[in-house]
Amino acid sequence: MKVGDWVFGETAEKHFVKGFIVKKIFDSIIICITESDSKEDVGTRRAVYNPYPAPNIFEGDDVDPSLMVELSLILKDKEMFMEWSVRYAKEKAAEANERSEEISRSEHL
After folding, report:
1. In the chain, where are the structural domains located?
2. Of 7, 14, 26, 61, whose CB is crowded by the most CB atoms within 10 A?
């Protein structure tokens, strides 16, 4: 396994997690957690034990673009960075528009 690979594993706290490898130190693998049975783990970096390969998560729509931007920076992949940065910006713009519309509707009540 190498940096950037997607894996499943278990943390020291016995949480089942999924994420991408950000660092390998001897026998330890540190991942950026994208999914976990503990919500507090998501977005953090933790060592995992007995990791095994995870399926390609790029296929789903539920991928957090901010984590993919981080992965692209770790991998120094400019094309990937551009793709996910645009997706992240569009997602944030859509969220801002929704908030603006909600505020506008509430002011007219």
Report:
1. 1-60, 64-109
2. 7
